[in-house]
Amino acid sequence: MHMKRILSAIVAIPLLWLFILKGGALLFTLLVMAVAVIALTEYYPLVDDTTDLFGPLPLLGYASSLAMVGIAHWVASPWGVLLGVVLLNIPLGGFFLLSRFEQDPKVVKHLLSHVFGLLYIPMVLASVVRLRIAPEHGMMWIFTLLVTVAACDTGAFYAGTYLGKRKLCPSVSPGKTIEGFMGGMVAALLAGFVMKGLFLPDLGWFACLLLFPLAGAVGPLGDLFESAMKRASGIKDSGHIIPGHGGILDRIDALLFVAPLFYFFMMLSA
Predict the structure, then answer these.
(1) pTM
(2) Domain end among 86, 111, 133
């Protein structure tokens, strides 16, 4: 399994970096669209094991997800429109589900899970698109986000492996330790400082002291959040699209918590 993870990373990471560097903002947005839809196909079984991935509600979710990521790319001030798409899913989803109430009294729960999924995945990924198309250093913000999340994950893994003694949240993820959590924060801070010095000169050092430790803290929370969903549903991996790594959602769970933080700090430094 460990070798599969390494081989997958050796293939995927250079392709991703070339995609970001050479593909342009539009191609990057198309990639995010694909990631959003695939992540939703993995999310629905985690919150409802009776979900038909090609039923009316998931199809509405996929279409809304594509629209939301596209709006983030093409609309200058997209957040009100994005919220409108999410809110529109409430009556539309209710239209599809309420007719099934007699056969399935949990339709309201299904609708709430569906709406949360749009906030959790495409709404957050919209902030990644906004980072990429930022007029000042957009590409570098994306690289800094990816490097910080990766550094946090790597630092947490090695600190937890060699120093970990106290469990962080054993009921959700028995392997995670407080020492690993602290190691991830330190690694995120160091990686963030390097990226700021090389590629983000406009980001102040005080902002860095806030942003990167916070990123190192909320990234593992994103991982734990998805782990809690998987544990509640009895599913080990959200998918199997990446050998040795699980699904797309398994790979972006930390990023989904960190990306809004980066977008907020980018807006503050603009």
Answers:
(1) 0.91
(2) 133
